[in-house]
Amino acid sequence: KEGGGGDNLAVAVQDPGFLIDSSMPIPGEYLSTFDKGSGPVTITTQPASLTVNEGDPATFSVVLDGTPPYIYQWKKNGSAITDATNGMYTLARTAYADNGAKFSVVGGGAQGTATSAEATLTVIKDVTPPTIVSAAGSPSYTKATLSFSEPVDPATATVLANYSLSPALAISAAEVRDLTNVVLTTAKQTPGATAYTVTVNGVKDLPGNMIAANSKVTFYTFIDRQGVLVFDFWGGLSTSDNSLDSTLVADPRYPGNPDWTVNTTAFDSRPVFPDDSHEGYGGRISGVLIPAESGDYDFFLRSDDSSRLFMSPTDDNPANAELIAEQTGCCNAFTEPGVAYTTAIPISLVAGKRYYMEAIYKEGTGGDYCQVAWRKTTDTTPAGNLTPIPGKFFSAPVTPDGLFLSTKPTPDTTNAAPNLVQVVHVDGATPWAQNNVTLMVDGAQVAATVTKDGGVATVAYTPSPLFAARSTHQVSLLYPVAGGNTAKYEWQFMVAPITKDKLHSYLGLVMGNAAFTPDAGGHTGKAGDYSMDFGTTGQRTAVYIYDASWLNAITANDEMSFSFWLKRYDINASSAFWAVSPSSNNGQRGWQAHTPWNNDNIYFDTAGCCDAGTQRINAAINTLPDYLSVGDDTWWTTKWHHFVFSKKADVKQIWIDGVLFLEGSNTAPLPTDFTSLYLGADNTGVGNNMHGMEDDFAVFGTALAESDVQKLASGTAPTDLAASTKLTAYWDFNDGATTTAPTLSISRDGANVRVTWTGTLQAADAITGPWSDVTGLTSPASIAPAGPGKYYRAKQ
Fold first, then answer.
1. Rounded mean pLDDT of 501-508?
2. Which residue among 114, 182, 193, 775 sits deepest, i.e. has the most Cβ atoms within 10 Å of its Cβ?
3. CA-to-CA distance for 648 and 726, rounded, in angstroms?
4. DSSP class per residue in 686-697
5. Where are the beta strands (DSSP E) in 328-471?
């Protein structure tokens, strides 16, 4: 069943001989249409008897043969079961009363019916009483969620008299959620990691076992911290009606009972939902705004779909919040005052004072986000260049153990940078400090530093030497939590393949499906020449130069050139490069080119996009005579072409194969706040992924002269140009000779196993290791099976 967004169904198979690729859907050559021969219905697989624990599911199945179509009717103790008319019948939760029950099925086809043998269900009685696993408060300070070890009986779990709190608080409601969780609604709890002990009596599990008398659990209340806002979610709303009043506002769960609540690091839903995969929901972002500067401010709202922005102009009391902006449609950019989704008149704020704010929005299908920006009336930044208000200007409740804002490298990533392990965390009840946080890498404690920005702690460690390419690492962080206890946060990662520039060893991470070509895959086609292959699949495919701050020394002179070779596989919507500048609009687009976009136009953007007078020059490739000699996209795909993009003051140029393709004037100076650089993708590495190969990527601190451009186009290496060109960085990708990934394949070889590999072969008796190098064998090796199992891997 397909609702909104993506839609697919696929089935794979792993066969004993490993002849079929189990990572892909089953090929048609192994399939045929369902075409049974004629004949009476027979039962080829009878229902099997089952033994299960009380409360577990139980599934019976049958396989028929004969002339289809088939019909089924399951029976319990000889009586037909309502709606049990498929080849499988499942009891979602067994009861002890089902012990000894007999299940059978009558199967029918075009030629009669057949009745199966009876299968007996044996249910092992549950005699274990439930226990309380944990308890947690909520950012509203009026909820406490108790988690039980097993599903509980709603008839007993919703009795208010079965619960008491110490210190004493009135309990006004008890609601069972997901059977194992009970949410208590209480009088206002005291913020600040206050300890409350819940005593539970009289609650039974579904089989009727009662919890031990006076069972207790303690939770700590949330704590107000600066640096975050609260994000609330209500799911299961209409995908077609995007009116807030008839969907979110009308829902009985709104406003006090969201499905779940988390924190977000900006007045922006994107930190919570970074993609558009969620449909039919409502969201709320709220917090207390604490401006750092007094003044008059405009507020800007944008969303997909409808949204409303509220603010208390006098204090931090939500009851005093007033509607200040509304988006009734969808998808507008931040827009100058004069529209309903930007405040009509400036709002005067006082530095350090607290103002409650919230935005609610409704998502139907497709894209989904809600974002709020602000701007002092004395600020001349265009509305379209604004970004959501950072969390550092807000205060909101966080768990008593604090909140992890970011982790580097990302847990389980295979594209980690080799130079940094970092955790950013909002303090809970016990502030993090140098003396109470311990960082361990690969089992050994390391000398990490803890720095603080208000209530936000940053734990950082720089390995020396840097982690090796494709190495894997395990990180453990020990930190204080409420109640004087210590918790552990663990994750692992793999370092990406790395390419270095020839001048300063600036590191580029080879991400996703990007890979070095085989030898002679560079633009010269000669042995020893490699290039970077971005493939055709995307999937965060790019070379990521995570520290490109060295660009700023060049751009301070408003002059720079990028030079590279390019060969395309096809003409998709893509970027050849994207240098990230936070001050530049449209994706922090400081220096970017489409070569070409999917309309066969080449675009060159600087200091943002896409104003023709200040930021962009572009032209269709069919204005190039050499292209016209071919006349179609094979011009791109059958040979390498050389490109230079340059800017000097107002003059911008695009050179192709040594010929000036386009010159134009853009008045905006180059930014001087570059942070990073992506090759073959956009400013995230996720979009605009290049379908093709790039080689000899070089950055110059000058606008190259025609003679130098022609030298490069004729095959001269960037390092062979005069020093006056100010070559600053140069990736030739020939380090692919030493960083090519190892390979490994395993197949049958008669009674043995044939293992073929490059790099170093390692073996282990368990998937978790320990691993050891295999000596005395050369690839390929025919190995006799010995023992219950063996695991192999190859490393470079």
1. 95
2. 182
3. 14
4. SSS--SEEEEEE
5. 347-349, 355-363, 369-376, 394-398, 403-408, 421-426, 438-441, 444-445, 449-453, 456-461
| Residue 691 token pair | 């379908």
How many other CB atoms sit within 10 Å of the CB of residue 651? 13
The HSE-up count of residue 271 (CA atoms within 13 Å, CB side) is 21
DSSP string across 582-600: TTSHHHHEEEEEESS-TTS
Distance CA 205, CA 203 (A): 7
pLDDT of amino acid 45: 93
d(CA 204, CA 222): 29
What stretches of 52-186 show up as alpha helix (H) in DSSP? Answer: 154-157
Asked whether the predicted pLDDT for residue 634 surpasses 60, the reply is yes
Query: What is the number of other CB atoms lying within 10 angstroms of the CB of residue 407?
Result: 19
Mean pLDDT calculated for residue range 252-266: 92
38 pLDDT band, cuts 50/70/90, is low
If one counts every other C-beta atom within 10 angstroms of the C-beta of residue 208, the result is: 12
The SS3 call for residue 300 is strand
Considering just the CA atoms, what is the radius of gyration of the chain in Å?
32
Which contacts of 17-22 are long-range, i.e. CB under 8 A and separated by 24 or more positions?
17/748, 18/746, 18/747, 18/748
Q: Tell me how far CA of residue 24 lies from CA of 16, 245, 748, in angstroms.
A: 16, 45, 21
- Given the DSSP bridges, would you call strands 119-124 and 50-53 parallel, antiparallel or unpaired? parallel
pLDDT value of residue 220 = 96
Q: How far apart are CA 589 and CA 557, in angstroms?
A: 18
pLDDT at position 540 is 73
Say what the pLDDT of residue 36 is.
46
Burial profile 770-789: b = 16 or more Cβ within 10 angstroms, e = fewer: ebeebeeeeeebebeeeeee
Q: Bridge-partner residues for 234, per DSSP?
A: 282
| Burial classification of residue 750, based on how many CB atoms lie within 10 Å of its CB (0-12 exposed, 13-18 middle, 19 or more buried) | exposed
Helices first, then strands: H and E counts in the chain: 7, 58
- Size of the chain in residues: 796
State how far the Cα of 572 lies from the Cα of 595, in Å rounded to an integer.
9
118 within 8 A of 75, measured Cβ to Cβ: no
CA–CA gap between residue 299 and residue 339 (Å, rounded): 11
Of 609, 624, 76, nearest in space to 384 by CA: 609
Closest by CA position to 270, among listed 171, 371, 195 = 371
Structure tokens at 310: 């509220």
Helix (H, G, I), strand (E, B) or coil at 141: coil
- When the pLDDT of each residue in the chain is averaged and rounded to a whole number, the result is 93
Phi, psi of 709 (to 5 degrees): -60, -45
> Residue by residue, what is the 3-state secondary structure of 634-677?
HHHHCCCEEEEEEEECCEEEEEECCEEEEEEECCCCCCCCCCEE
For residue range 666-712, what is the model confidence (pLDDT) as tens digits? 999 999 999 999 999 999 888 899 999 999 999 999 999 999 999 99
Q: Average pLDDT in the 629-640 region? A: 95
The DSSP letter of residue 622 is G
The edge-to-edge listing of strands for the beta sheet with 347-349 is: 347-349, 295-304, 369-376
For 500, the token pair is: 């270095």
Closest to 660 (Cα-Cα) out of 684, 685, 643, 638: 643
- Rounded to two decimals, what is the model's pTM? 0.71
Q: Which residues pair with 602 in a beta bridge?
A: 619
Banded pLDDT at 279 (limits 50, 70, 90): very high
Backbone angles phi, psi at 582, to 5 degrees: -55, -25
Cα distances (angstroms) measured from residue 102 to each of 45, 49, 123, 354, 361? 17, 9, 12, 67, 52
Contact 494, 416 (CB under 8 A): yes
Q: Position of tokens 């709104």?
A: 254
328 within 8 A of 340, measured Cβ to Cβ: yes
Nearest of 560, 545, 555 to residue 583 by alpha carbon: 555
